[in-house]
Amino acid sequence: MAWFFGDGFDLYAAPADAYMGGTYWDSGAPGSATLGVGRFAGSRAFGFGNGTGSQLLKNSGTNEAVHHVNIAVQITSASLSGTTTWTYLSFGDGATAQCSIVFRSDGAILLQSGGPSGSTLATYTGAITAAQTWYGFEFEIVVNNTTGSFAVRKNGNTINDFSATSLNTRTTANNYANRLTFGNNAATSSSMLNDDFLWRSDASSVAWVGDIRCYTRMPASDQSVQWTPSGSVVPVLGFPGGTNASVGLGTTAKYLPFTAVCDGTIGSLSLQCVAAVTANIKCTIFAGATGAPTTILGSANLVTNPGIGTTTFTFATPVAVSRGVQYYAAFCQDALSGNFAYLSGGAPPGGYAPLTGTGTYATFPVASPGSLSGSSNYLVTVNITPTAAINAPFVADTMQDAAASYVSSSTVSQSDLYGIAAISSTPSTIVGVVTRGLCQKTDAGTRNVAVQLKSGATTVQSASTALNTSWGWISRTDTVDPATGTAWTATGVNNAQIGAQVTA
SS in 3 state form for 175-186? Predict the structure, then answer.
């Protein structure tokens, strides 16, 4: 296969993280793009929001006639109506669009000549039949001026749900495309979320793979480590991302979910105070079950009248937590005063929403609180002291947290390898494994790094990449198991190790 590129959108704290200076997607213009709740529990989705300027762009560097794109979509509006064109996938010969797949607000999918506003070549009516429901599509585009074609399979079907042939799917003199632009064609909000994206292309043919799912898996254990962790405490950000709003905690309890990245104890946690508070604030950590707080695990020392800046809650008796388990940090204050920072719109890691509960300051905390409803995504940071001194938790961010936690090295040839969490279910087919690392340099001069994957006795690396002083992605794609040269198995993926090496 000549080209393979995919994204599950789970690693990002903000939409611009998808490209970060052209280090994964080649460029982007997120505009009012958003990150929302993804197709599966714990996953995230990408929405382009408002305006035609919202887009992501990727160049393949290969001139291919046959293209397959898998994507899961959900129309988030209450119903299907109108004929507004929303999300599009445009196949380009360089900067010139050959043809474009366009999703319409009534559930139809169009194939347009040239860009997303071009003339219509084919219309798949009724492709999406229900709003607020996820659909998985696989598209095949053949770029040709006389024998071009468009075929669609939905939700893993093994035969075409729609096809059109004898089309002119090019606008240049070339029967190929080498660029994909993924964006929004509406001047108003697109009301769509997108997840589980994969683009494959070849000069002659590309196999259908059916419905796909991106499993994003983080380091879970040290296998061979030489780099230095950023500290002895792992800060876990419940809702990574930039502060874009603030709101008061109020006198009803707020329950904010977080997932422990390692076995350890919580000695403190913090919120960012935006407007000074004149109140007493209680803080308690709860165990969680089925997306709700249950057992009281421990309470912090009372905080009174915090000023602007970091508000820290300290646990005189640290609270024990276990890796991969969901917990809740809960807060309640005795007066309506002050504001704390929160990230509006973003989906919490782990798939559980922040909650507000009934009850009073005087009775808080109560085990298994009732009458829970949605709340705001307060920017809480939970500080976990690992049970053992290991590197993996410092690079196991549910979403990238930049310099909040990391490992580092300036010694050429130093290498880290980590075991990764097992796949939550056994897929029938694995089409590829992408290893990614978010890196930057902080020292003078040149510093190069490669991400690496070890399968069995075989270790493979990405190209040695010169780092910038700003964060950027380094990645490697393996469509077959390097140890065998054949298709990946679930066992092979579960036993693989990933990491990074200083190469220069």
Answer: CCEEEEEEEECC
Q: What is the pLDDT of residues 419-451, one digit of tens each?
A: 998 887 889 999 999 999 999 999 888 999 999
SS3 call for 406 = coil
Q: Where are the strands (E) in 65-119, listed by range?
A: 66-75, 85-93, 96-104, 109-113
Topology (CATH) of 3-202: Jelly Rolls (2.60.120)
- End-to-end CA separation in angstroms for the chain: 31
Q: Sign of dihedral through CA atoms 391, 15, 10, 465?
A: negative
User: Which pair of tokens denotes residue 97?
Assistant: 């669009």
What pLDDT score does 352 carry?
77
Parallel/antiparallel/unpaired status of strands 303-304 and 280-289: antiparallel
Nearest to 72 by CA among 244, 192, 157, 215: 192
Topology alike, domains 219-226+389-502 and 234-386: yes
Tokens of 399: 């979403």
> Any bridge partners for residue 140, and if so which?
68, 151
Distance CA 214, CA 46 (A): 14
Would you kindly state where each structural domain of the chain is located, as residue ranges?
3-202, 219-226+389-502, 234-386
Choosing among 2.60.120, 2.60.40, 3.30.1300, 1.10.10, the CATH entry for 219-226+389-502 is 2.60.120
Q: Which amino acid is at 422?
A: A
Residue 84 tokens, joined? 């507004």
Q: Render pLDDT for 135-172 as a digit per residue (tens, 0 to 9).
A: 999 999 999 999 999 999 999 999 999 999 999 999 99
Question: From CA 247, how far away is CA 365, in angstroms rounded?
Answer: 21
Contact between 473 and 20 under an 8 Å Cβ cutoff? The reply is: yes
Residue given tokens 């129309």 in the structure block = 75
